[in-house]
Amino acid sequence: MTAWNGRFRGWGSHRLDQWFQLDFGRRRKDRMIVLDVQGVSSVITPDDVDRVCRLLDANITGPGTGRRT
Question: pTM value?
Fold first, then answer.
């Protein structure tokens, strides 16, 4: 995560297709998770990205799952 793609965004978005959840600690983080749901991407920045990815992988099924970039 860089300054250009969300590190310093507090909340909301300047793009209509992406929404950053409120996270006061985002500036100290270097990774984010983008959840694409029906055309709107919700961006979350959990403290333990790997754990959240494991939980998502274990609990979400269907087409398009398991895609990471």
Answer: 0.66
